[in-house]
Design brief:
266 residues, alpha/beta, Rossmann fold, seven-stranded mixed sheet, three-stranded antiparallel sheet, 8 helices, globular, Methyltransferase domain-containing protein, S-adenosylmethionine-dependent methyltransferase activity
């Protein structure tokens, strides 16, 4: 990855380091419930991956490891990767406290193959991950490197249409291109998990269309099993969503999808 991106990654790393304690104490992450046995996983990924008992699983951009440890509780042998050293430190403490045999590696996700040599039955990543990457091809190549032959990759992610909006305005307005290549910089108070926090989030991100996601994976040698789009989200992180009878969040008019998922094999 070109050195020109390093300053962007460093800004994001510092922001995610600062988020860790705020997120760990938030209702969004419900640490008390999680420690008592609640899963942090959603039905999309549980249904997609099924029985993971005895399988090796690499979790990319794992934050402080709740999803990683949730898979571990289901019997998977897990490794989590994240750019934030504060997040990895907390993930390791949680693994020890919960007596889960999961390992955690601190590195830029694009450098995973420099730090992790094992190949896995499953590579998993979810909800707000690819937008931190300027180019998906190195990401897809790394996924192919870390998957064993016949292994499964699964991504569930916010739909690229939702990232065309600027949510810092009073009412969201379309400001960013679906195929925009330039970095998007945002600076705002709080985080998605605690909008009342006094921290100032400083973040660089990039938009990626569905075509880019699928093409990067196929170019890396993966076979796409499916691409699915969903009108609902398990998280109320966008404005003006309503809660449906299933407990999911959706737009009242359902004008565009909120999530998509890709399942692929090597």
């Amino acid at each position: 990855m070109p050195d020109t991106f390093e300053k962007y990654f460093e800004t994001n790393r510092q922001t995610w380091n600062e988020k860790v304690n705020i997120h760990a104490g938030s209702a969004f992450y419900d640490m008390e419930g999680f420690k008592k046995g609640a899963t942090s996983l959603n039905q999309f990924e549980i249904d997609a991956l099924g029985d993971v008992s005895g399988k090796s699983l690499l979790h990319l951009q794992c934050h402080f490891g709740q999803d990683t440890l949730s898979w571990s509780r289901m019997g998977a042998r897990c490794t989590g990767v994240d750019i934030s050293e504060n997040a990895i430190e907390l993930a390791r403490k949680l693994a020890s406290e919960l007596e889960q045999d999961a390992s955690f590696v601190c590195c830029n996700v694009l450098d995973t193959s420099l730090h992790v040599k094992e190949v896995f039955d499953i590579v998993f990543t979810s909800y707000g991950v690819i937008g931190w990457l300027p180019d998906l091809q190195p990401w897809a190549n790394m996924i192919a490197e870390r998957l064993r032959p016949g292994g499964t990759f699964y991504l569930v992610e916010f739909h690229p249409i939702v990232w065309m909006f600027d949510y810092l305005e009073k009412e969201p307005v379309i400001r960013y291109g679906y195929h925009q290549k330039e970095a998007i910089y945002e600076e705002y108070q709080g985080t998605y998990a605690d909008t009342d926090s006094s921290m100032i989030s400083k973040e660089y991100g990039w938009n990626h269309g569905l075509g880019e996601v699928v093409s990067s994976l196929t170019k890396a040698g993966l076979k796409i099993e499916y691409l699915q789009e969903y009108d609902t989200s398990p998280y109320e992180i966008f404005p003006n969503l309503i809660k449906n009878k299933e407990g999911m969040f959706e737009m009242s008019e359902k004008l565009y999808p909120l999530l998509f998922s890709v399942k692929a094999t090597r």
